[in-house]
């Protein structure tokens, strides 16, 4: 039996899911994980059915990263407020 006979059993759901979720809470990390997932989809290691979630992780991650950079450059106090209000507060003490 060939490995290509059932391509949807290749998995990849957890990687694309974490890329999507982290794109909201830690945008640069989510964007990078989304790129990793897209690479793995292209190389055939992850089912192509997860492509939309990986693309969402990349898109949301980079858009939010850009917005955070803009906020940080214009109002550093608002950026600090964002960091304290998300999961970053557990990473930064």
Give a topology summary:
Elements (H helix, E strand, L loop, with lengths): L12 H13 L1 H16 L8 H24 L1 H10 L2 H4 L2
Helix pairs in contact: 1-2, 1-3, 2-3, 3-4
Characterise the protein shown here:
- This protein is mainly α.
- Helices cover 72% and strands 0% of the residues.
- The chain is built from five helices and no strands.
- The chain has helices spanning 13-25, 27-42, 51-74, 76-85, 88-91.
- The longest helix has 24 residues, at 51-74.
- It is elongated, with a radius of gyration of 16 Å.
- Residues 1-7 have low confidence and may be disordered.
Task: Write a brief caption for the model.
The chain contains five helices and no strands. With 93 residues, the chain is an all-alpha fold. The chain has one domain (10-91).
Strand tally is 0
Number of helices: 5
Order of helices and strands: HHHHH
Low-confidence stretches: 1-7
The helicity comes to: over 70%
Instruction: Estimate nothing, just give the exact number of structural domains.
Output: 1
> How big a fraction of the residues is strand?
under 5%
What structural class results from the helix and strand content? Answer: mainly alpha
Give the termini separation: 53 Å
User: What gyration radius follows from the Cα positions, in whole Å?
Assistant: 16 Å
Largest sheet data:
none
- Assembly type of the chains comes to single chain
- Outline type: elongated
Overall pLDDT = 82
